[in-house]
Design goal:
It is built from 3 helices and no strands. By secondary structure, it is mainly alpha-helical.
């Protein structure tokens, strides 16, 4: 049986216009910082860093998970209170 070359790959699609608006970066830079930012970001980073350092052994990072959980509880309770008061 003779060897044959495989067929050429199909041509790449071309798009007439970009899906991202040209002024996207300008609009994004003007976007206001909202009060929905995660205030527990540092605790989250520490817990992930601990997991990376300990080869994803969760038992070695209990302290960091506890810190993150407590921070998240306080944050969510604060948001609930603001929502009840009509400020959120």
């Amino acid at each position: 049986m003779p060897l044959t070359k495989p067929p050429p790959p199909p041509p790449k699609p071309t798009f007439d216009e970009f899906s991202t608006p040209s002024d996207f970066n300008d609009k994004f830079k003007q976007k206001e910082t909202t009060k929905y930012m995660n205030p527990c970001a540092s605790e989250e980073k520490q817990s992930m860093k601990c997991l990376d350092k300990n080869n994803y052994d969760k038992s070695k990072c209990d302290y960091y998970f506890l810190q993150y959980r407590e921070c998240k509880k306080k944050w969510l309770e604060e948001r609930r209170q603001l929502r009840r008061a009509g400020q959120l």
